[in-house]
Amino acid sequence: MKQQLKVLSVLIAGSFSLLAASGGAIYAATQSSQPLSKAELIKQGQQVFRYDTFGDEIHWTDQLHMNQVISTEVSPKTALAVGLKVDVDALPEAVKKGIADGSINLDDPAVTVVLLKLNAVVGAQGTVENVNGTDTLTRFGITCALCHSTVDNSFAPGIGHRLDGWPNHDLNPGAIVALSPALSAAQKVQLNSWGPGLYDPRWNVDGLSNPVVIPPAYGLDGVNSVVYTGDGPNLSYWNRYVAVTQMGGQGVFSDPRVGAHLNPHTPGLAPNWQPGMLVVNGTQDMTSSALAALQAYQLSIAAPPPPAGSFEPAAARRGKLVFKVAGCSSCHSGPHFTDANARLHAPTASAAKDTLYVTRSATGMYRTTPLRGLWQHAPYFHDGSAKTLADVVEAYNKKLNLWWLTPRQKNDLVEYLKTL
Ligand code: HEC
Ligand code: HEC
Asked: Is the CB of 294 within 6 Å of ligand 1?
């Protein structure tokens, strides 16, 4: 909320009134000023997705001092242990050789600085400058790829070619942020409680700690409703939200609906919390102009098809029928297996365990999650309460009272889900 107070004072100062007026109504994709072909736009969007910090170094460097912690405490081994990934295509041959033969010391934080200088850490951007003869990490920021890219481990575990759009479920964002010396002990306890693959993109908004599974950013072309709770009609809505309010990018996000469904007596709610959201970072908008390309790139990423041999074809064919008869297709309908373009669902529609997160959103409702690349991105449901697809089927078995499903039909349904 400190952030919001700062925001208001900036607004009152007047320097931001024009920007805020446009930011307040942004639910549509922002148009890029230059006319680019679709292919060029996608290419530009890939650069944004991988490397653009939207100026969030101000947050990660000046406020959180992550550059200091990384230089002194985060060896490559530590970085890999908290799920950070290394892009093998950014490594020169000599570095690859040094890693392979052990002559590069992966226990030395100075090597992390080298990797950042090479721009080889997925989702991290570092500025490395020569200070008194030593390479020094002077600026640090993050990009979208931090949470929504992983690598194929082709070189070593955690080191390989980029897989954009694949959620990084090894990543422990809470543990990473908790490294900051600028946070209180209580905040660190919250952040460290989340665990790998989960992040709470509302914790710094309402003070609650209730993380959700990092979802894939692929297979979304044609789905005009985003996030678990369908908060906006396009990716740009949410991309602006995350870039400004979570990453600390420079720009504006505003949505008066956020938190309108939250019970003001919810335990743990920040004492000065109020429904509605307005965040303005800085005096120069570095987010809006990137949104069109960023959205185009994500929409171009197809869901990865199931690997050969990863499901049993005959069972999957039978499971397709079970999916229909069990009523799954009444919500998971159409080419994306979702009715998201037509409606949202009441909080009671979810078969997940957590019931709090939905109330913290803009809609207070659930979007039927589109089903794609399911084989790739366990755990399932917004809270990750179903570790496997068999757990998903069991959860629905209870929820929808599917007592008549035989063990074989349940198995067939799981095999079918693996094909989506
Ligand atoms: C710290 C981790 C983190 C970072 C960084 C991050 N995201 Fe996300 N992203 C999440 C989480 C968690 C959600 C789920 C939020 C929800 O559904 O309520 C999400 C949701 C999404 C979705 C919604 C997918 C769907 O099914 O509708 C997209 C797309 C997305 N993020 C893209 C981006 C882009 C683009 C950026 C950079 C501007 C970004 N994310 C930065 C964690 C992150
Ligand atoms: C009333 C509408 C509705 C019905 C019926 C329904 N679902 Fe869902 N489904 C949802 C919603 C809403 C979510 C998101 C819940 C959450 O994340 O908390 C979801 C999530 C899922 C997920 C998790 C996807 C992910 O990436 O996390 C799977 C898998 C799934 N459903 C499969 C099924 C199957 C199989 C059936 C039939 C047995 C079914 N659903 C019936 C609405 C429905």
From this structure: yes
Q: Give residue 22's identity as a one-letter amino acid code.
A: S
Pocket of ligand 2 (CB under 6 A): 228, 326-328, 330-332, 345, 349-350, 352, 366, 368-369, 371, 374, 380-382, 392, 396, 400, 413, 417
Predicted structure pTM score: 0.90
Rounded distance between C-alpha atoms, residue 207 and residue 192, angstroms: 15
Ligand 1 center to residue 242 CA distance, Å?
A: 7
The number of angstroms, rounded, from the C-alpha of 358 to the middle of its chain's C-alpha atoms is: 17
Residue 360 and residue 229: Cα distance in Å, rounded?
Answer: 9
Cα separation of 289 and 356, whole Å? Answer: 34
Question: 87: which strand partners?
Answer: 160
pLDDT tens digits, the chain, 420 residues: what are they? Answer: 444 434 333 333 333 333 333 333 333 344 555 678 999 999 999 999 999 999 999 999 999 999 999 999 999 999 999 999 999 999 999 999 999 999 999 999 999 999 999 999 999 999 999 999 999 999 999 999 999 999 999 999 999 999 999 999 999 999 999 999 999 999 999 999 999 999 999 999 999 999 999 999 999 999 999 999 999 999 999 999 999 999 999 999 999 999 999 999 999 999 889 999 999 999 999 999 999 999 999 999 999 999 999 999 999 999 999 999 999 999 999 999 999 999 999 999 999 999 999 999 999 999 999 999 999 999 999 999 999 999 999 999 999 999 899 999 999 999 999 999
Q: How far is the CA of 350 from the centre of ligand 2 (A)?
A: 7
Q: Which ligand is nearest to the CA of 376?
A: 2
- In the chain, where are the structural domains located? 2-300, 313-417
Answer whether CATH 1.10.760.10 is correct for domain 313-417.
yes
b/e map of 250-283 (b: 16 or more CB within 10 Å)? bbbbbbeebbebbeeeeeebeeebeeebbbbbbe
- Which amino acid, residue 347? P
How far, in Å, from the CA of 215 to the mean position of ligand 2? 14
